[in-house]
Structure formats: structure tokens, C-alpha cells
Specification:
Layout: H1 8-15, H2 19-27, H3 34-47, H4 53-60, E1 65-69, H5 78-93, E2 97-100, H6 108-112, E3 117-121, H7 130-134, E4 140-143, E5 155-159, H8 161-174, E6 180-185, H9 190-206, E7 211-215, H10 221-234, E8 240-243, H11 249-258, E9 262-263, E10 273-275, E11 281-283, E12 294-299, H12 304-307, E13 314-317, H13 320-335, E14 344-347, E15 350-352
Helix pairs in contact: 1-2, 1-3, 2-3, 5-13, 8-9, 10-11
Length: 361
């Protein structure tokens, strides 16, 4: 015996309201009291009501899909793949398919005819596709703010990137570092801009010079290794390297090993005496020799590369799958009228401390 499909009318009768009230309550539209909306949704859940997505799309003259635009380098980065899976999962919960857009983007008019809304992650002002996407005529949610000229209202889900780098700098300082350095991402995305600015402001506030070396936004381990070698050769006193790009921290570890800088528990700059160039002692940890002394290593983005490194690398976990879900959820809420088009929501991060920043001893 097959069970009968639960209809809107069934929900309306059980909730004691009209069919149109049920429709408005479930779609988040119309003037429905919050208590009524909650009661209708509870009854629908209890009865096992499932909306007819095809009919709903037809009534709304919608496509039933949303677009996802990622940076061109995303396909080889662990962070963006996890973010995309989270976004797809959340969109499907609202009956929406996710369309991955080509890195080059497309004309706004063509995009608007194929999707109901857009997710644009880490929009770079230098990305020629972004302005057209933001002005496509459909609701847009950006993952991080767009720092280019505004083209219209768009929602955003943002992380406090200044706070996350501050936490890393505070952490390596507490673990004994006195001359931290940052391999900062190039470009003008909100993330890259915040990290570079924070390195300067944190250094001024603490009376410490944070050496900044710019590397590609999606630097490979090889590029990070080369940048770290150059950095430590130019300034042997550097005793902590914070690597920004996702997946590039193993390159910093390789450079440290090649230069005889043990990562983690041998950071001598936190002790009363450190080694200067050529092995000479320098009081107070003002300088550190290039061979045999320690180096703390941390990353601005956690992932398989940091967790699986030897030693495992301290990193900021941006919770990318949850971030993708949050971006998709905001877009779904805007499409359903549950949130204003210019809503901004915050996304949390956490610091994962590991052996790469273990203190001396």
C-alpha cells in the first residue's frame, strides 16, 4: 500500500489556516504572523509535506538554480573545494541546484536567464568577470566583501580576517617569537588586503617590525619555499613565518629544513640567549643565527596540507564547508524574502595550535 502525497490543503486543514497562508508561511513571503508561520512549518514537518519544486519554480518563473563563481585558482585549493561542497549541500535543502560558473564568468544578462541568484566567493576587483556578475539583475551574495566599485545591493558573509591574523601573531609571540614574518597574498581581495594591513597595524601596536613578503594568492609549496629561503637569507633574525596561501605551508617547512632551522620546540629566540649570524651569541634574543636555531611556522588557512605536515602546522580553521553553507543560506533567505538583499552576516573561525609552534623545551 502506497502512502498518499501530503498537499498544501492537508497542511492548511491541520493548521487551521487557509491554503494561501500555508504557501506564504512556507515560502517566507506575505504578511504572516511569526507564531502562525512557526505553527504552519511545524505541522508541515509533522505531516511530512514536501513542496513540489517544479510547480514552485513555474509559479515564480524561476530556474531553480543558483550560480557559484570561485577564483580562477580554486580548483587546486582544498579550501574552495570544501566551501563549494558546503554551498551545494545547503542550496539543495531549499530545492535549488548549484551551477559552477567558468572562471572567466559570463555576461550578466545570460547568467540572469539561467539562475535565480549568484554566489561570488572572494571577489577580486581585478577579476573582469565580477562586475558583470554583481550587476546581473539577480540577488547576489559575496563570500567576503567586494572592494571594487559597487554596482548594486548584495549580501555578504564575512570573516574577521584581521582578528585571525592577530591571533596568529599573538600566538607565535607568546611562544617566544620576536621577529615574525608574513608570506602575504598578492591581489586586492578583502582577505589579502586585510592580512597585509593587519601585519602593519599589529607591528606598530607592539613595537615590532613584521617582515612582509608578497607571494601569489594561491602560492604553491615551491613558491612558498623559494620565498622563505629568500626571506631567511635576507633577515636571519626572523624566528616565525606565517604563511597565508592555502596549501603552501609545506614549502616553508622544506625551506627551514634546508637551512638547518628546526621547526617548533627549538626556537631559541624566546630564551635569554640566542645565536647570531655564524653561530655568535646575541643577548636578549635580538638576532638568531641561520643554522641550528628554531623557527615557528603557522598558516592563515587550515587544511590537509597543514594537518598532514611534519610537524603538523598551527593554522586558522576557516571552517570552509560551514562557510559555503552560510553563503548559500543567506542567498536562499534573500530569494525567499527572509532577508534583505544587502544583509551582511559574520562567519566564525578557530585557531588550531599544533607542533610547529611548540615552545622551547
Amino acid at each position: 500500500m502506497t502512502s498518499r502525497t501530503v498537499t498544501l490543503l492537508d497542511v492548511a486543514r491541520a493548521a487551521g489556516v487557509s491554503k494561501s497562508t500555508v504557501s506564504d508561511a512556507l515560502q517566507g513571503s506575505g504578511r504572516v504572523a511569526e507564531a502562525t508561520r512557526d505553527r504552519v512549518r511545524a505541522v508541515a514537518e509533522e505531516l511530512g509535506y514536501r513542496p513540489n519544486s517544479a510547480a514552485r519554480r513555474l509559479r515564480r518563473a524561476s530556474t531553480g538554480a543558483v550560480g557559484l563563481h570561485l577564483p580562477a585558482t580554486a580548483t587546486r585549493l582544498d579550501y574552495y573545494m570544501n566551501l563549494a561542497f558546503g554551498a551545494v549541500e545547503r542550496a539543495q535543502e531549499d530545492g535549488l541546484d548549484m551551477v559552477l560558473l567558468a572562471p572567466s564568468g559570463a555576461a550578466g544578462g545570460r547568467i540572469a536567464s539561467r539562475v535565480d541568484g549568484l554566489l561570488v566567493i572572494d571577489p577580486e576587483p581585478g577579476d573582469s568577470a565580477v562586475p558583470g556578475l554583481l550587476d546581473a539583475g539577480v540577488p547576489v551574495v559575496t563570500g567576503e566583501r567586494y572592494l571594487g566599485p559597487a554596482t548594486g545591493p548584495s549580501g555578504a558573509v564575512v570573516c574577521d580576517n584581521a582578528a585571525s591574523l592577530t591571533a596568529l601573531l599573538d600566538h607565535v609571540t607568546e611562544r617566544g617569537a620576536r621577529r615574525p614574518a608574513l608570506l602575504a597574498p598578492s591581489g586586492s581581495s578583502a582577505w589579502a588586503t586585510a592580512l597585509r594591513a593587519t601585519a602593519g597595524s599589529w607591528g606598530r601596536a607592539h613595537g615590532v617590525t613584521v617582515t612582509v613578503r608578497t607571494v601569489p594568492f594561491a602560492a604553491t609549496p615551491a613558491e612558498a619555499e623559494a620565498a622563505t629561503r629568500d626571506l631567511l637569507a635576507a633577515d636571519p633574525a626572523v624566528d616565525a613565518v606565517i604563511c597565508a596561501p592555502d596549501g603552501s605551508a609545506p614549502g616553508v617547512l622544506r625551506a627551514a629544513a634546508a637551512l638547518g632551522r628546526k621547526v617548533g620546540a627549538s626556537n631559541a629566540s624566546g630564551a635569554g640567549e640566542a645565536r647570531g649570524a655564524g653561530g655568535a651569541s646575541v643577548a636578549g634574543g635580538a638576532a638568531v643565527g641561520p643554522v641550528g636555531t628554531g623557527l615557528l611556522v603557522a598558516s592563515c588557512v587550515d587544511g590537509t596540507a597543514t594537518r598532514g605536515a611534519e610537524p603538523p602546522v598551527t593554522a586558522v580553521d576557516l571552517h570552509p564547508a560551514a562557510y559555503g553553507r552560510a553563503c548559500a543560506e543567506l542567498l536562499c533567505d534573500i530569494l525567499a524574502g527572509r532577508a534583505a538583499p544587502d544583509t551582511v552576516r559574520r562567519h566564525s573561525w578557530s585557531l588550531k595550535t599544533r607542533a610547529s609552534t611548540d615552545p622551547p623545551g
